[in-house]
Automatic annotation (TrEMBL):
<feature type="transmembrane region" description="Helical">
    <location>
        <begin position="12"/>
        <end position="34"/>
    </location>
</feature>
<dbReference type="Pfam" id="PF07963">
    <property type="entry name" value="N_methyl"/>
</dbReference>
<keyword id="KW-0812">Transmembrane</keyword>
<dbReference type="InterPro" id="IPR045584">
    <property type="entry name" value="Pilin-like"/>
</dbReference>
<protein>
    <submittedName>
        <fullName>Type II secretion system protein</fullName>
    </submittedName>
</protein>
<keyword id="KW-1133">Transmembrane helix</keyword>
<dbReference type="InterPro" id="IPR012902">
    <property type="entry name" value="N_methyl_site"/>
</dbReference>
<keyword id="KW-0472">Membrane</keyword>
Amino acid sequence: MRIAPRVAGFTLVELVMVIILIGVLSALGIGLFAGRSAFSPLLANQQLASATLLAQQAALAGNSAGTLTVEQAAESFRFTVGAGSPEARVFSVERAGTSLTGVALPLTLSFNSLGEVSSGGSTNLTFSGDTTYQTCISSLGAVYSGGCLP
């Protein structure tokens, strides 16, 4: 009766290759997160759309939080839904080299009980950084990508 040699574990070459692979993947991952300024205009655009929808829904529900205030601070964008009301919610997005153009800031939009913008006009906003995202808030309260149609 012959006993076969026992083979278990990893070779030194396999372990070194795994360590190198983990190092390369982590270096790539850190680079992706460090250069997030390209995504900042998109994130700010999406946060604006969410805050606008929340303010519009509050107005439709008849509570006092049916306003949206957009501000640009040195380090972040601030979206305040229902400023001055007990239901106020503040959302903040890091600017990271992004700027907001197209409107005078701070911008305050009020929504009526039908969910429409009380001022009656459409609003064009442009978030610019490494990329540019344009957003339209229509007079009916709809938020969509691209510029407002005349």
